[in-house]
Amino acid sequence: MHRVIFIEKLSNLEQRNYPEQYSDLAKFNECEIDYFEQFSLPSYQNYKILDLNFTDEDDNLLFEASEIINEITLAGEDIGHQILGNAQAVQGDACYSWALQSIGHKLKTLSELNISDQNRVLENQKNIRLLLQIDMLDNIPNLSKFGASGGIYFGITENDLANGNFENTYFELQNS
User: What is the torsion angle, in degrees rounded to the nearest 10, for the CA atoms of residue 98, residue 99, residue 103 and residue 106?
Assistant: First the structure.
């Protein structure tokens, strides 16, 4: 279970004590966010790439291009924190998982779904965007307490993002 809370007026925020009934596992340290522009290429498993019918050689070139972009922009090879763009997923493309969630299914392969659900997943993943990506190796918010490296990914439909509706977001946790 997750919830995305968007607050436009930061002046209305007030500090509160952490609720006693919540597990300490759900408690994270606050941290400042720095913003900068960065290129992010889609995963070789993303529908944008799959629709192009890439060969193995094309997939390798995509991977090399991503490495070159990271080197030039000093982005590094870590997952990193990210707002919008293409998710730098650890285990497959996050859009696929979000599209499964959008039709009420847990993680399955496309072949396990009936034709109608397959088509809905394939169509829905084209409309869901990365809202926020969180790198679990960042020690400042203390995400490393989960004992693994990986990423936390939040997705949102284009329409909901455009309308500022954060009630229907999607969540994916991928780790190693």
Answer: -50
